[in-house]
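Request: Give me one sample?
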Amino acid sequence: MHASNTDFPTMDDRFIWDIWLSSVQLPTVLAADELGIFDLLGRQPATADALARELGLNAQALVGVLPLLVGLGLLTHHLGRFGLTEAGRLYLRHDGPFYWGEALGVMRTPVVALLCDALRDPTERRHYQMAQDWTEGRIDKDAATAVARLMHAQSRPAALGLAATGAFAGVTRLLDVGGGSGCFSLALAKRHPTMRCTVMELPGMCEVVAGYVNEAGFGRQVASQAVDMFAEAWPRGHDAILLSNILHDWDPATNAQLLIEALRALPAGGRLFVHEMLLDDDGAGPLAAAAFSVMLLLATGGRQYSARELAAMLTEAGFTDVGVSPAYGYYALITARKP
């Protein structure tokens, strides 16, 4: 049985995120070492695009990885150019006086090869199978159950924290796009007894959502609706839409399509809520969001974005009154309105 949705954590979840996200730190350093990133930057600073050209890598994928190396204190980032810190120069250049690569390599895992593949050719989809299934609208019951359990464990504290911000006051009908286990809708329904929430998910996920909703006892406030968000029109009749941990799964072009569909689905004055961990506006950290970007590169080919990048996407799609505020733990909430 799952814990009751009325519980609230007595401390935030940043420490457990740090433990989980630490699993990609060493593989990222080893991949950068193998691909020659430290050696090239040891010769001269370079932009991500220049690095990609020199090393035969994909620039968009590289943008998802370099902030973690900055956050780890191995790279500098100034005016769009990356360089080596003193630590990177001493310990990670092959010709450096104290090169550590041979020792670090003892702890090499298969994740290093996956990262190298993703950086060389992110169109190779073998390590993005879950995302490919999602975009093609297919997910079976077993996969849906596994995904929902992961999302529920990872997102429930953030969901409760988001509901506690009060940002959703006045919302009467919420469309929770790609809502996973429904934990955000459940937390918001508990906080706002008159709110009605629709979890928009693939058919396989909707059956799983129903189990979480029934167990929590919120069947009168929370329902699910089977919709392929890439291929079908989104339901109308909601005065707000929530995109929590959605935009980070996709590239900017795909996100532009999703935001246009969100705009179409909302009435005039309708509100959009985007819930994400944010990179700093200079794209050089912080460590948690940067590490999450690397995980997303491997899982879906996506990455975390900065508030500036998300605001630009929202404005380009036609939203106005874009704002950003802290949510809970490492998360932030970006809000906007349809004119």
Summary: The first strand starts at residue 75 and ends at 78.
